[in-house]
Amino acid sequence: MDTAVRALGDAVRRQELAGFLRNRRERITPEQVGLPVAGRRRTPGLRREEVAQLAGVGVTWYTWLEQGRDIKASEQVLGAIAGTLRLDPYERSHLFALAGAPEPMVQKDCAAVSPAIHAILAKLDPFPAVVQNARTDILAFNRGYNWLMDVDGLPFEERNSLLQCFTNPAWRSRIQDWSDRMPASVAEFRAQMADHVAEPAWKMLVKRLRQESVEFEALWTQHEVQPMRNQTKRFLHPVAGPLHFEFTYLWFGQRSSVRVTTYTPADEQTAATLAAHLSC
Questions:
Q1: pLDDT for 5
Q2: What angle do CA 245, 249, 254 make, to 5 degrees?
Q3: Helix, strand or coil for residue 247?
Q4: What is the pLDDT of residue 83?
Q5: What is the pLDDT of residues 24-65, one digit of tens each?
Q6: Under 8 Å between Cβ of 261 and 130
Q7: CB atoms within 10 A of CB 159
Q8: What is the pLDDT of residues 100-148, one digit of tens each?
Q9: Is 202 exposed, middle or buried (0-12, 13-18, 19+ CB in 10 A)?
Q10: Other CB atoms closer than 10 Å to residue 83's CB: what's the count?
Q11: CA geometry: angle at 133 spanning 99 and 260, to 5°?
Q12: Does pLDDT of 276 surpass 60?
C-alpha cells in the first residue's frame, strides 16, 4: 500500500476514534461512575480529566487521544478506557479496531448479557431465542437459534442480523419471503437509528450495507420507518426443511434497547421438527 494512502487512512481512523470517545464520554453521567456532582456543568457527561482519572491515564495523553493525534495506546489502557466508558462488547471491539490494536480474546464473550439471561435462553431450548441490541448485533443466543441460523459459523465481529440478511447468501437462503420481509426490517432499523444517528458504529454499519447491497441501498433511500411488531417468520432450514414461527420481542427494561426475541413454533410440524432435531 502506498505510504500516503496508508497515512490518510490512519488519519481518518484517528478522527473516528476521537469522535467515538467524545460521544461515549458525553453519554456517561458522573453519578453512573460514583463521582459527586458539584455545581453546573457546561458539557454533558464526563469531563476529559474525569475519564483520565478513572482510567488511570494522564489527562494530557487522553486529551491527545480525543484530538485524534498520532499516539499509540496499549491493550491495557484501551481496556481501562472501555471499562470507564461502560462500552458493551461490540463498542469495545470498535474501540480497539479504531485504535489499531488487537483485542484480547477474553473479550469475545459477551459480558453485557447476564448469567440470568443466559439461563433463560438455555431453558427456552429447543425453541430458538436470541438477544440483540437496537443495532441488530447478536449478543447471545441459544442452541435452537444456532441450529436455525448457524451463528457459530460467523466471525464474532460479523454477528449482526441485518448485515447477514443483506450480504450473506447462506443466511438469506434460510429466510423465506425474504423480499417481503426486508422492507420492514430496514424501516424498523431506520426508526431505531433516530436515537443513534451520531454514533460511529451505526454510521459505519449503514455505510457498509449501502456499499455492499444494492437491495439495502434501494430500501434505505425510501426513508420508510415503522415500529417493531411481533409477527410470524418462515424459514427454510438446509436439513430440516420449512419451519414456521411466531416470534415475540421481550425488552430487558422500560428504556432498554436490548431485547430477547423468542421463536415459538406456529404449527405442529415445526414443533415436531424441533423436537426431532434438537432432542437431548
A1: 60
A2: 170
A3: strand
A4: 85
A5: 888 887 877 777 766 667 767 888 998 888 888 889 989 998
A6: yes
A7: 20
A8: 877 664 444 444 678 888 899 999 999 999 999 889 999 999 999 999 9
A9: middle
A10: 12
A11: 145
A12: yes
Asked whether 15 and 63 are in contact (CB, 8 A), the reply is: no
| 258 contacts 251 by C-beta, under 8 angstroms | yes
- As separate numbers, helices (DSSP H) first and strands (DSSP E) second, the chain gives 13, 5
Q: Quickly tell me which residue has 459477551 as its cell.
A: 110
Whether pTM > 0.70 for this model: the answer is no
Nearest to 248 by CA among 124, 152, 111, 88: 124
| φ/ψ (deg, to 5) at 48 | -60, -40
Residue 33: strand, helix, or coil = helix
Cα–Cα distance measured from residue 187 to residue 22, given in angstroms and rounded to the nearest whole number: 29
Q: Which three cell numbers stand for residue 150?
A: 448457524
User: What pLDDT shows up at residue 72?
Assistant: 83
What was the pLDDT predicted at 84? 86
Residues counted in the chain: 280
Omega of the bond prior to 102 within 30 degrees of 0, cis? no
